Structure formats: C-alpha cells, structure tokens
Amino acid sequence: MKTQMKPFLQEVAEDLVARFGNQLENCAIVFNNKRPAAYLQKHFADIIGKPFFSPSFFTIQEFFACSTSYKIADFYLQFFTLYKIYNQLLAEEKLETISSHKFFPLAKIILSDFNQIDADLVDAEKLYRDLEDISVINKEFDYLSPEQYQFLAQFWTSYSEGKHKKQQELFIKMWRRMPKLYQKFHEKLKDQGYLTNGSVYRHLADDITNHQEFISNFDKGKIIFVGFNALSRAEAKIFTQLQEADKGLFYFDADSYYLDDNQQEAGLFLRKNLHLIGLKNEFSGKESLMKTAEHNVNVFKVQGQSAQAKILNTILEEDYKNSESVGKTVVVLADESLLIPTLQTIPTIYNGSAIDLNVTMGFALSTSSIFGLVDLWLTSQLETLQADKVTYKNVEAFLTHPLTGLTQKMRDKILTALLEENQVEVDHKRLLRQSGLFEVFYKKIEDPQFVVTNLLEVLDFVLTRLSNAKTLKKIDAELFVKTIQELNRLHDTFSNHIGKEEIPFVIYLVQKSLQAIAVPLSGDPLNGIQVMGLLETRNLNFDKVIILGFNEGIIPKSSIGNSFIPDSIRRVYGLPVLENLDAISSYMVYRLIQRAKNINFIYNSLTDESTSGEASRILKQLEYESGFNFMYHELNLEVKTEQFKEVKIEKTSNAFIKETLQKYLDKKKILSPSALTQYISNPIDFFFNYIAEIKEPKEISAVVEANEIGSILHKVMEYFYADLRKAEITEERIKEQRKSIPKLIQKAFNAVMFKHPDLVMEYKGMQKVILAIVDAYVNIILNQDISQTPFTIISLEQKIEAEISFPLNGKEESIKIFGYIDRVDVKDGITKIIDYKTGSDKLAFKDIDELFNSDGKHINKALIQTLLYTYAYEQFASKTCVEPNLYIVKTMNDPTYGGVWFKSNRQVLRGDFLEEIKPLFLAKLKEKLTELFGAPYFKASEVQDNYKYSIYKTLFGK
After folding, report:
1. Of 46, 15, 43, the residue nearest 224 (C-alpha)
2. Which of these, 526, 654, 698, 792, has the minimum number of CB atoms within 10 Å of its CB?
3. Please, are residues 52 and 22 in contact by the beta-carbon 8 Å criterion?
4. How far is CA 473 from CA 477, 479, 495, 701, 742, in A?
5. Helices H, strands E: what count in the chain?
6. Can you say whether residue 144 is alpha, beta or left, with left for phi > 0 and alpha for psi between -120 and 50 degrees?
7. Could you count the other beta carbons within 10 Å of the beta carbon of residue 501?
C-alpha cells in the first residue's frame, strides 16, 4: 500500500499541538529562514480550529540576535572599520597604506572568513599562525588557485615579475597581520555598540547558561528548532546546551533512505547532528517515504537556457485549470537567472479566470529601468568629475530613458542639435542650463557625503513626476521604495566614515549595494503556484515539484565562495569545504521530493558559458538507485529556415516609382555618379536609397568612419593647392607648402567632423591616429605629384554637369548627371582628371561589357566614375583626349599594382586605347540607363560581393 504523504510542517504542527495544547504561546519556534512561519501558522489554525495565541517565530539569526543588547553591524560598517584598522597596522609596520578601492574586494573575503571562523568557533590566532607556517614552509603558496594568487598579487604595488621573493614576504606579513586585525576589528565594532553575526554565535556558544535572561523568556515553554540540516559548530554547541538544559526540542526532516545509508551524501549532516552531536530528533523512527510512497518523475532535456521555462505551460496546464490543488505546486529555480523567462511564460489568465501566482524570489532591481537610470546617473557623475563633460552616448541614454519623461519634441530638439555638431562629449554646463530634471540629474557632486543625497534628490524628482502623471507601475513603486530605503541606510552608515573617501569609490559602493536589491513580487504564500529559489523551499512541501536549471555546476554548485583559507586548513579546522555544498544540495532536493507525487526535472543540454550541458549528478543518482518511475522527454526546437524568396520591386504598376523616375527624365532630379554605380552593382539598392529614400540614421561616434577619412583627405588637398594653383606647380613650391600640412589637416578634420574649420581643440586618442593616417596619405599623393612636376592646375573640387541621352520606349530621352571633380591638371598639353581614393579600389578592369554587368564580378566603380567625369568634363569644357587618373593612396607606391592609370590586360588606359574605349563606354552606359528607366523590376545582383556592405541587405532578403 502506498503511504499517505503529509507536509512536514503539518506533522510538526500536529505534534506540537498534541504536546503543548494552549501552552503553545510560551514557545519559540526557530527556522532557517522566514518563509515556513506562514505555513506553520496555517497548519496550527487548521488543527486548533479556533482563535489561539500564537507562539513566537524567529529565523535563527533573529533568535540569536535577541540574546545581546548590541546591534548587528551591516557590511558597510564592517568594511569601513576593517579598512581603518588595516591601514593602521600597515602604518605601524611603516608600510604604504592601501586605497579603499583596492582593499574592497580583499575586505569582502577577509570579512567572510572572519564570520566563518566565528560561527565555527575556530581560534583565529591559531588558524592564521598555521596559515603563516604553511606559507613560510611552502614558499610557492600552491594551495592558492592561480586566480587567487593573481588576485592577491594585485594588492601589492611593489610586485613585479622579478620580485617574487618580495611577494612571498608580503604574503607572510599579511597572515601575520590577521590575528591582530581580527582582534582589533571585533574590539572596535564593540566599542561602537556593534557585533557581527558570527561573533553573536560565538558569544552565545561559549556558555549559554550565562545568557540566563535571554533563556528565561521561554521558561514556560520550549525553544523548538525545525528543519535544520548543516549546523555550524556554534549552532551545534548552542543546540546541545539547550537540549541538556531541557529547553530545546528538535524536529529534523529526515528520511531513513538517506539517513541510515552512510553512502548517501544527502544524510551527511543529519547523521552528524544525531549521532556525533547527539541531538534528539522528535520525529525519529518514521517510515521512509522515499521508499514506500509513489513518486513519478519526468525529466525534460531542453536545448537552451531560457527554453527551459518555455515548457512550464505544458507541465502546469492542469494547475491552471484546476484550482483544487491550492498551493500544492512549486516551480523551483535552481538557476535564479530563469526568473524573467518563467514570469514571461506563465500566463496571468487561463480560460477567462485569473491564475494565482506567488513569486517569493526577489525581482532584481538591477534588471529594472530604475537601476538603469541610477546607473546612468552614477556613470555620468564619474564623467563629470573627470572632465566636466558627459559622453554623447550617456546623454542620449538619458534623453531616451523611459523614466526621464521628456517630451518627444524636446528629445528630438536636443538630439538634432547634438547630431549637427557631431560632438562625442557634451559640456556639463550646457546640460545644467536645460533646467528641470537636467538640473537635478547633472548637479555635480561636490563632496563624497553628497553622493547619496544627490541621488535621492534625482529619485525623488522622478518619483514625484511619475506619481503626479499617474504612470507609476506597482513593481516600480516597490522598487523605488526599496531603493530609497537602502540609500537612506547607506547614508546613515556612510555619514561617519566617508569624509576622506574619494567620490568615485563612494559611487562604486552605491552601485554595488543597489545591485544586490531585490523586491519580492506580490502574491499569497499559501495559494496558487509558488515560484521560489531552492533555498526558500526549506521546510516546505508540495505535491507537485518542478525544478528548472537542474544542471551540474548549478546544483550542486561547483565552487565554494572566495576565501583565503586553503582547503587543507579548512579541513583541519572543520570549516565548510566543497563536499559540504554537495551534501546540502542533495539534501534540499531529496527532502523536497520525498513527499512529492509528481516531480519534474528540467535541464539545459546545451553547453555555454553558464552551464555544462550536463544534468545534475543528483538526477543521475536518483535514476540509478531510487526506484522512482522515470519518464524522459526531449524538447527539440525545430529550426526552420524560411525559403529564400527573391525580392523584386516592380516599377510599371507603381505610380510613385514611375513619378520619381520621371523626375530624372524631366531634369528635376540629377543623377550622381555614385547613384549610378550603386545601380550597376546592385540595382535594388538604388531603389531603396534614391527612390524610397531610406537612409541610415545619423549617429555620433568617437570612431571616424572610413568615408570621413576620405572627406578629410580631399579637404586637405583642396586647401594645399588653393594658393599654389595661381602659377605652375614645381617641386620647390610643393616642398615649401609641405610645412603647413599639420595645420591644414587639423583645419580639414574640424571642417569635416564638426562643420567648424577654425575650431581650436585638443585631439585625443583615436583623433590623433586619424590625423596621422591623413598625414601619411597626403604625403603619398604629394610624392606622386612631385614626380609629375611641372604641371598646371586648372580646377579644384569643380562641380560639373552634363546630359546623356539614351533610347527609351522608342524615343530619345535624356538625364542630367553632376559631380565634383577633385582636380583637373594639364601636363605636356594633356588634360588629366584626378580622383583621390582612400578605399580599396583597383586600377585593373576586364573589359567594358563587364563594367556594367550587375550580375558579374568585374564591376570597377572607380573606373565608371572617372570615365563619367571624363565624359562630362569633355562636354563641359569642349575638349577631347581628356585622361582619367586615379590616385589610390593605399597602393600608389606599390611597384606592381601602383601607378595612376587604369589597365586592362596590361594595356594602359591612355592615348589611343583610351580613345577607343570612350565610345564603347558611352554606348554601354546608355544601355544601362535604358535598363534603369525601362526594365520592369529593380532586383538584387546575383553576386553577393556586389552588395557585401549594403545597408539594405535585410530588406531584400539576403
């Protein structure tokens, strides 16, 4: 016969009511965590069935804290106290003191070690002396992992490769400092009226009968400890003393399946508590639910992290329908990062009725828009402190942040103004002038004391505006409250300690402390589907259990927190080691499933940076020996790729396209050479760019785009020859003018980047690199020019227009082309058109047919462009035999590919060959124009390389 399974807390409630009746109110009930109290209360109410006086409920920390009149020091108070003492000790040793920023990560580890030493009643002096001995004997410190070694190495500034010896001495000195640090730290806290959690445990454990006043509160009843597993040495000692004084009762949630079998790690701590420490379990001798009750297990193997949450709807469907199973279902997130995907999956309404969902896990502030705003404020403040400027990307983030509540009009106005100026950084004063939220948000922090108060002002301003506009969401309201509470708490702690701190460090602390905030989402802890982390399930039972993220490395965890106490010494002193984590994880899973009928394990089978893709070893163990009924499911997400559809834009039936093309024929629009080459290499791009006019949004970026380098170079060459062109250009004159190049480059840079040639500014980082690149390019061009001297310049950056006629639907049509010719020279009677190129253009071409073949691989845009210029210039200036020259700065000096003339199969495009080519070029150009205006479709080129850099790729389905 299958056994009836009652929740553990119901059994505890029944036993306590039977034992104490109406004396229950004199008892104290102590748990590991807060959550079980509500459940136990409910069981009491169900059993007693009438109003009753409740016993007191405590978590173990709260209970122990009642034993002392001291307050418990929070982390920041501990940090500042430790930091002060550490620097005093360094000063006594005549060593350089350490900055708070550097000490912070070190302090976190030291404090956690101190706490563990206290909770496990270890003699700190002896432990650190052993550590020092080991370090002295073992000069290599090989008990530290390479990461820890690296980590510590950063704390000693005098460290360098050659000073390994020095490093060891610093290590050993650090261990020598520890006992003193430990002792003074506790003394100093005590002087201020504070203790750490660990030291409360230590004081209580020394001899609990000294705390008669505390214990006598419960003289008429008992102190009842429910559902404990791994005990620190202090807890074990306190529990034993309470049991001996006949004050304590213990209810352990154990199952003989793993308790009586020494091989089962889940029972490791319970065996220790019962057999070694000698605590008495009020629930001993119960039959094993693991063995006798029915357990059905479904294992879901899922590909992908978030995909794990996506199958919840399948598993929970009957819970949505059936409100009978009130509070009997739990979704446990072994991997807490799955909270958001889980909330996005479980619906709020099913078949018209609302779904009860209670999320006990905190919704992390760091994933909310409020944290986004706070974080933005903190980073903007750091920027203001450093340079009195805020980067454009942070100003943009501020303007577009949902909580700043700026009108679209105001946003656009400011963003357009900033885009115009192309400034990567915005002056702090300008931002303050905008008043309103700007004034509050960008107010400069004058003193470390004001970090928190200024931030509170910003939050207060935003909060008032949101609540006046009645646009405040419930979860945001709770997050605001929690953030403001935390900031007020920090303000109290900081006020005595941060007078001399650096503002950036205080900002860092605020950032760190706010990252840790989470707000429990609302719901009823006793009803509906419960969503919780594994730690929160302690003491609770559910008929249906779903565990997400059941992966090796997540459960059990694969690393014990950071500590400077090596494993060997931890073992000697009985401090927690990695195996403890395995035993604790196993126990938490086993006790949750021992009373559950329907168990679902879901794990991610894909290997990525967060998981191994392996199911937890606990699952493997259960499969191997539990005798439960296992069912396996694999969720394979089908990856479907859409059939490639060729996108063609039809011209004939589309009035808008016809009208726009007609504008070219009516000369209301003029065709540029780059528009034409875009059409030739990928016709559909021409449609998106020149007809639909879909443009790339303008951005401000500190990186100078390749086309901007080209524009700067063109400007410099224009400035360079502007004065010289009045007379014949000779080698001497070029050499003389070379002296002014740096000035000209800066002027050109400012003109292109900031539309302001005469700007006076200091160039930084990347800007200096760009100036240097342009300088190199200018010199390559000038070396080429010197080799051509003497010559005469006819024009610079000249705009020219010309008409080209072509046949269309049986009649002659024509269009106008225009362009800017970089330079026109005359040398030895030959007129040359010169085009500068900074890209990877080539001089070689196959033949004229291939130049215009949109589906071919031999389009040479630069040649089409220069021949177009040549054609236009010949028309414009009534000249013949004009010769195109291309200055490709990257390859001009190259002996094989260099030069300035185009080549086809070793024939250089000049003289007779050029004159032969020109009419062929014109004929092909006319054919292409007939196609542009007459073909039925705009379509994509068949050669991918022809649109490799197209911004419209996604639009034509490539």
Report:
1. 15
2. 698
3. yes
4. 6, 10, 32, 35, 57
5. 38, 27
6. beta
7. 19
**Distance (Å, whole) CA 13 – CA 17:** 6
Q: What are phi and psi of 80, to 5 degrees?
A: -65, -35
Nearest CA-CA partner of 286 in 260, 259, 264, 256: 256
Query: Which secondary-structure segment (H or E) carries 918?
Result: helix 911-934
Highest mean pLDDT among 70-79, 135-144, 751-760, 919-928: 70-79
CB 592 within 8 A of CB 5: no
In contact, 304 and 624? CB cutoff 8 Å: no
Both tokens of 907, joined, read 């024939």
Rounded CA separation 444/438 (Å): 11
What tens digit of pLDDT does each residue of 367-420 get?
888 899 999 999 999 888 888 888 888 888 888 888 888 888 888 888 888 887
Lowest mean pLDDT, pick from 280-289, 320-329, 749-758, 832-841 = 320-329
Q: How far apart are CA 567 and CA 564, in angstroms?
A: 9
The candidate with the shortest Cα–Cα distance to 60, out of 162, 164, 190, 204, is 204
CA distances from 663 to 527, 651, 939 (A): 70, 14, 21
Q: Are strands 329-333 and 529-533 parallel, antiparallel or unpaired?
A: parallel
| Residue type at position 872 | A
* Mean pLDDT of the region 504-513: 87
Using an 8 Å Cβ cutoff, are 27 and 56 in contact?
yes
Tokens 């949450």 appear where? 309
Element housing 505 (H / E)? helix 503-515
What is 370-398 written as a DSSP string? Answer: HHHHHHHHHHHHHHHHHHSEEEHHHHHHH
Please give the C-alpha separations between residue 923 and each of 629, 687, 848, 934, in angstroms, as whole numbers. Answer: 81, 23, 10, 16
Query: Token pair of 705, please?
Result: 């785009």
Phi, psi of 500, rounded to the nearest 5 degrees: -100, 5
CA 641 distance to own-chain centroid: 29
Query: Which SS3 state, helix, strand or coil, does residue 434 take?
Result: coil
Helix, coil or strand: residue 545: strand
pLDDT tens digits along 57-88: 999 999 988 888 889 998 989 999 999 999 99
Cα–Cα distance measured from residue 163 to residue 175, given in angstroms and rounded to the nearest whole number:
19
The label of the residue with tokens 């109406």 reads 22
Do 839 and 668 meet the contact criterion of CB atoms below 8 Å apart? no
Cβ(107)–Cβ(99) below 8 Å: no
CB 655 within 8 A of CB 846: no
Cα radius of gyration (the chain): 39
Cα(785)–Cα(24) distance, rounded to whole angstroms?
Answer: 102
CA–CA dist 934, 529 (Å, integer): 66
Distances (CA, A) of 944 to 548, 948, 953: 44, 6, 10
Q: What residue type is 715 in one-letter code? A: K
Cα distance between residue 103 and residue 941, in whole Å: 61
